[in-house]
Amino acid sequence: MYFFYHHWLVLLCGIPAGILFCRWQAKELAKKRQKVLKCQFRDWITAVASNLQAGYSVENAFVKSGKDLGSLYDENTDIQKEIRQMEHLLQNNVTLERILEDFGIRSGVPEIENFSEIFAAGKRSGGNFREIISFCCEVISAGIDTEKEIQTMLHGKVMEQRVMCVVPFVIMLYISCTSPGYFDPLYQSPAGRIVMTVCLAVYMVSVAVSRRIVNIEV
């Protein structure tokens, strides 16, 4: 707001925008946390599939896999917290499908929700859990691998997008420092303020569009 208007009163108008940005940033951090949790969940059910192959029952396979993940994930990670909660609920006679269903809803990760639904359906129909869990693990792994490949391909473009978002401010700062008063007509006249408002709107739209281009969901 200061770069575009050079007036302290206009800074007050930027407070709501700052609040909206904080909410947006919170959503972005939540998405990153969900992606990490999805990878952790993939490792968890991979260990479950291995324990089922070793002859463990379904419930014991889930509990044993949590201990197997101790070497991969710290006890403060989300997946370890969920595993500890699962063990506690199983001791209180809560069914495993109920636990997984609640986990899927709370996580907000579609893959975990789908897994809980498939697991519950298999439990009701007496399905082969070794095949079910192995298949779900393969599907989740394929999605994660595809997403990583896309992110790798787009890494350079993402960096370019971030740089381009900063370039206009760098140019304005450079000109303001090297040629004081050069932008005064834009800041001190009604027509200039209108022009800067249009520029601000174009800049915001450009940033939003560029983020949508590089943000590809799998």
Specify the biggest β-sheet. none
| Straight-line distance between termini | 35 Å
Give the helices and strands as they follow along the chain: HHHHHHHHH
Summarize model confidence as the mean pLDDT. 84
Rg is: 25 Å
Shape: elongated
Protein structure class:
mainly alpha
Percentage of β-strand residues? under 5%
Unreliable sequence segments: none
Count the helices. How many? 9
Q: What is the number of strand segments?
A: 0
Q: Helicity level, as a percent range?
A: over 70%
Features:
218 residues, mainly alpha, 9 helices
Topology:
Blueprint: H1 2-5, H2 8-53, H3 58-68, H4 78-91, H5 96-107, H6 110-125, H7 129-178, H8 184-188, H9 190-214
Helix pairs in contact: 2-3, 2-7, 3-4, 4-5, 5-6, 6-7, 7-9
Q: Can you walk through the features of this model?
A:
15% of the residues are buried. Helices cover 84% and strands 0% of the residues. The chain has 218 residues and is mostly helical. It is built from nine helices and no strands. It has helices at residues 2-5, 8-53, 58-68, 78-91, 96-107, 110-125, 129-178, 184-188, 190-214.
